Amino acid sequence: MIFKFKREPESGLIIVNVEIDEKFELKMILDTGATNTTIDSNALYLLGYDLKDNIGSVEIETENGIIETEVFEINSFSSLGLIKYNFQIQVYDFLAHGIFSDYNGLLGLDFLEETKFCIDTKENTITLTN
To answer: Per-residue pLDDT tens for 53-71?
Structure first.
């Protein structure tokens, strides 16, 4: 499967569309340096999730130090032609921590687990094979 992606003009970030529960679409940054997928808690709340329904919390290391994130299980989470059911994501309040972004989070390597992928920055494509 080959997918075209957009790049953020100033930063070169790779932007992908993500669909949650087969009805909500978000724009996220593909971050091959991120172990886990992380979504802004404000976006999740606006999608109708109750932020008290987390299944736990975990500490993660970021470039700014260690932070604590909530863990949620999403019924279906898809992007780049892949779909994961009961996919666990990390949720973090971007605004409360001074993170202002046009995007709703980071698509991490956990989503691409068990998938061979190649990112072609010349053609702005991602090729995926199982």
So the answer is: 888 887 777 666 777 778 9
